[in-house]
Design a protein that fits this description.
- This protein has 180 residues and is mainly beta.
- 9% of the residues lie in helices and 25% in strands.
- β7 and β8 form a beta hairpin.
- 35% of the residues are buried.
- The N terminus is likely disordered.
C-alpha cells in the first residue's frame, strides 16, 4: 500500500463553480459574480436546513476552514450568519473595530447609505456599523452608553476597517463558503 503525501486541493475536488457541471447557488442578496472562487465545504453544517433561520438574530456557525481558524480567538473558524427578510448573509464573527464577537450585534434595516436594500449590523460594544452584504463601514449608530462611548473614543483613531463578508452557497445539498 502506498500513501500520497498531502491531500488533493479542495478547489480541484469541489471545482470553482464555473467549470463544474453543477453550479454553486449563492445565497443572500442578488447573485453577484465573485472575484474570488475559493469554495470550501462548511463542516459545521450538514445541509442548508441547518443554517440559522431566525430573522434578525446573529448566530455563529463553525466552519473548521483552515483560513478562518485562529487558535487564540477563533479555534473553530466560526463565522456569523444572519437572516434578514428571507436572505442569508455571512460575515466575520468579530467586529473589525474592537475585535469583540458579534453575538449580540443589532441587525438594522437598510438606509440611504446602503442603497436602501442592504441591512446593517451594529456592534453592541463599540457601535461600529457595517453594511451586512458588502462589509463596508457606514455611519455609526449612536446610543453606546458610557463604556461603549469610551471604547468608541479609543477605537475611533483606528482605521475604519471593513467587516469581512463571505458568500455562502449550496451544491448537492452541501453548504459551501467562498473564502479569500
Amino acid at each position: 500500500m502506498t500513501m500520497r503525501k498531502g491531500r488533493r486541493s479542495l478547489r480541484k475536488t469541489i471545482g470553482d463553480g464555473a467549470s463544474s457541471s453543477k453550479p454553486i447557488r449563492p445565497m443572500g442578496g442578488e447573485e453577484v459574480v465573485a472575484r474570488r472562487t475559493n469554495w470550501v465545504p462548511v463542516s459545521g453544517i450538514s445541509s442548508m436546513g441547518d443554517l440559522p433561520q431566525e430573522e434578525n438574530k446573529v448566530k455563529f456557525v463553525d466552519t473548521e476552514a483552515d483560513q478562518l481558524i485562529d487558535g487564540a480567538v477563533n479555534p473553530t473558524g466560526a463565522v456569523s450568519v444572519v437572516t434578514y427578510e428571507g436572505k442569508t448573509y455571512c460575515f466575520a464573527s468579530s467586529c473589525s473595530s474592537c475585535k469583540i464577537p458579534l453575538t449580540k450585534a443589532k441587525v438594522l434595516p437598510p438606509n440611504e447609505e446602503t442603497g436602501g436594500s442592504d441591512p446593517r449590523i451594529s456592534c453592541d460594544f463599540c457601535s461600529a456599523t457595517y453594511n451586512v452584504r458588502t462589509g463596508e463601514r457606514v455611519e455609526d449608530v449612536g446610543g453606546s452608553g458610557l463604556l461603549g462611548g469610551l471604547v468608541k473614543g479609543l477605537m475611533s483613531a483606528k482605521d475604519k476597517e471593513a467587516l469581512p463578508t463571505y458568500d455562502l452557497g449550496e451544491r448537492d445539498g452541501k453548504v459551501l463558503i467562498n473564502l479569500p
